[in-house]
Specification:
There is one protein chain. The protein has a single domain, classed as Alpha-Beta Barrel (TIM Barrel). The strands form three sheets. Strands 3, 4, 5, 8, 9 and 10 form a six-stranded parallel β-sheet that branches. The longest helix is centred in the first third of the chain and has 23 residues. It is globular. α11 links the parallel β8 and β9. α6 runs parallel beside α12 and α11 crosses α12. It contains twelve helices and eleven strands. By secondary structure, it is an alpha/beta fold. It binds zinc ion (ZN). Zinc ion binds next to loops.
Length: 329
């Protein structure tokens, strides 16, 4: 049963990844393309904190801050100025989210275990909405607005090279200040560098993680660090990842895949309507029905209009079914 489920999710994911990758090549200049897995590294301290907070606690504690910062700073923030508005608690370890998000931030390592239905300290139904391939000026602000309107939080798997543009740096700050989790989805999202001949190049992978993290620290400040990584294309799509996994782990980094998706990386074979996307999402959840933890793969790349349209309904599904919304840390 477990094996069957695993196979199902793997093939689902592989499908998503393989097609997603190709479709995403074109936005590479602004965003990048598509999918993947993650890593995280922090210990479980957060899982405990998060578990003890109820869904409404998590929502309200972060929401007010989020909604405000999202709307107040959306157009006029400059990276330098906003950086200085961050309250720095010297006793708080650097992490991938602002302090007010602590109550709903979960260790990615814990989530990685939990999402395949293995025993976990996360006992409440918890969903982690994840968005790959940003940031950009087209879709990212609209996704942020939906999340603010819905008063929920997500984790953004950002492609490092999108952050060289000043307006995109400001967008990253908006994500961060709004209480979302910031994770890394490589620097260049270039499969031929990360996985030449489909085999992982550990040195390139680790370098891309470090390049992206360094740039993020320059934008978000020294109290920022992120130990959450998603392999472009997904961990399950490539060969020879063990050395890269091990080197990332030495850096405290956890890779993270997903156990649910909306099918927005399937290209021409993907859902064409909101209804079809919601159906795809519902079907994807059957892979690990017993896990209280759902990690949902979505994209805020510039061509993901349908994802944006479906997003309020996806969120509604989890609210209706009693989930709290967490971020990966
Ligand atoms: Zn991607």
């Amino acid at each position: 049963m477990k094996k069957t489920g695993l196979l199902l999710i793997l093939s689902l994911s592989a499908l998503i990844i393989l097609s997603g990758c190709r479709t995403q090549k074109k936005p590479a200049a602004q965003g990048s393309a598509d999918t993947s897995s993650v890593t995280s590294s922090q210990k479980s301290k957060k899982a405990t904190a998060a578990t003890s907070s109820s869904a409404s606690d998590a929502d309200s504690s972060s929401t007010s801050g989020v909604a405000e910062s999202a709307s107040n700073s959306s157009t006029d923030v400059d990276s330098q100025t906003q950086e200085n508005t961050t309250t720095v608690d010297e006793n708080r370890a650097a992490t991938n989210h602002i302090a007010s998000a602590d109550s709903y931030a979960y260790s990615a390592a814990e989530v990685q275990t939990a999402m395949t239905g293995q025993p976990t300290t996360i006992t409440q139904p918890t969903v982690f909405l994840t968005f790959d391939d940003g940031v950009n000026q087209t879709m990212t602000p609209r996704v942020l607005q939906v999340l603010a309107d819905q008063q929920v939080h997500a984790t953004f798997f950002v492609v490092g090279n999108t952050l060289t543009a000043p307006d995109n740096q400001a967008m990253l700050q908006k994500e961060y200040q709004a209480g979302h989790g910031i994770a890394i989805h490589s620097y260049d999202h270039n499969y031929s560098l990360l996985y030449p001949n489909r085999v992982a190049n550990a040195a390139n992978i680790v370098r891309e993680y470090q390049q992206a993290e360094t740039l993020m620290q320059q934008i978000l400040g020294a109290d920022f660090t992120t130990k959450v990584w998603r392999y472009p294309g997904g961990h399950m799509s490539w060969q020879g990842l063990a050395p890269a996994d091990a080197q990332l782990k030495q850096l405290g980094v956890t890779w993270m895949d997903w156990n649910g998706a909306v099918g927005d990386a399937l290209g021409s074979r993907g859902p064409k309507t909101v209804e079809a996307m919601l159906q795809y999402h519902a079907n994807s959840l059957t892979a690990f029905p017993s896990s209280p933890v759902k990690v949902i793969l979505m994209h805020d790349a510039i061509d993901k209009e349908l994802t944006l349209q479906a997003l309020p309904k996806v969120i509604e599904y989890y609210k209706t079914h009693g989930y709290q919304f967490g971020i990966l840390s």
